[in-house]
Amino acid sequence: MFDASGHLQRLGIAPRRDGVDTGTGQAPFRQQRHQPPLRQLRISPTVFMVYWSRRAGQHVVHVEDFGNGVVYSNIFLPDGSAQRLKGTLTPVK
């Protein structure tokens, strides 16, 4: 779950077991068991860019559009490749 200025949402990209999981459960996006510091930038009242780096040298950037309930995720790997994902945001009640 993620709280961006009052928008508590569940990310619908991948299963979450602990920490932050934006991967598919397959290498090299396997679950990591630490919580990296998240940084956020408010783009508009309902759109945020959230980013963090993982210990394995991966960098993750989300653009989260709470108004439309969609998240765009970009995961950049140490070898220079990238994976782009799109998922849903579901309000947590």
TrEMBL record:
Residues 37-90 form the MoaF-like domain. It comes from Ralstonia solanacearum. Residues 1-36 are annotated as: Disordered. This is MoaF-like domain-containing protein. InterPro entries: MoaF-like.
